[in-house]
Write a structure and sequence with these properties.
The chain is mainly α. The protein has two domains: 115 residues, no CATH class; 39 residues. Helix content is 74%, strand content 0%. The longest helix is centred in the N-terminal third of the chain and has 25 residues. The N and C termini lie far apart (78 Å).
Length: 175
């Protein structure tokens, strides 16, 4: 929305990027400090997310600070990673600095394309408003397809599914 409003002149592009980045920064800082100061609550509340917390810890150990930068784009780990980092002894100031620049990069990546293609987006919205009886089922189908894709591809895979037993072959005997 900020990109569209910036395109129409209702908002300043640079200010909207700055403010959106600060909002993303504040949210991740909140998650970080929830992990830092509420360890028992996190372990109790996120009991079903243990695998994701373990993955977040492994990613942080393996990749270090770039994982803080990339966490905004990781499906299913968006909130887990800052909480997980808060549970560790990671430097809070360093997290805040990386998080701030990451938030501004995220805001830029999401707002600038909407600003640049603002006229095209407004034309599509105008057509969708005129032909709402086609646009609504199309939007529902699209949203359902995205939901189905992520639901299907993020299921826990059983051990038997990963390594199915090979059928035993009988040796070839000649008469």
């Amino acid at each position: 929305m900020a990109g569209i409003f910036s395109h129409t002149g209702d908002m300043n592009l640079y200010l909207s990027i700055f403010i959106a980045g600060l909002g993303g920064f504040a949210g991740d800082q909140m998650y970080f400090y929830i992990g830092r100061y509420n360890k028992k609550y996190v372990h109790k509340k996120f009991k079903g997310q243990r695998r994701k917390f373990a993955l977040a810890h492994l990613l942080l150990k393996k990749h270090g600070w770039p994982i803080i930068f990339a966490q905004r784009y990781m499906y299913g780990l968006r909130t887990i990673i800052p909480i997980s980092i808060g549970l560790t002894r990671y430097n809070a100031k360093l997290f805040a600095i990386i998080n701030l620049f990451s938030a501004w990069a995220w805001a830029t990546i999401t707002i600038v394309p909407a600003w640049y293609f603002g006229q095209e987006i407004l034309e599509i919205l105008k057509i969708a408003k005129e032909y709402w009886y086609i646009a609504i089922p199309f939007a529902l189908f699209f949203a359902g397809s995205v939901f189905w894709y992520f639901h299907k591809n993020t299921k826990k895979v059983s051990k038997n599914h990963k390594n199915p037993q090979k059928p035993t072959q009988t040796p070839l005997t000649l008469p």
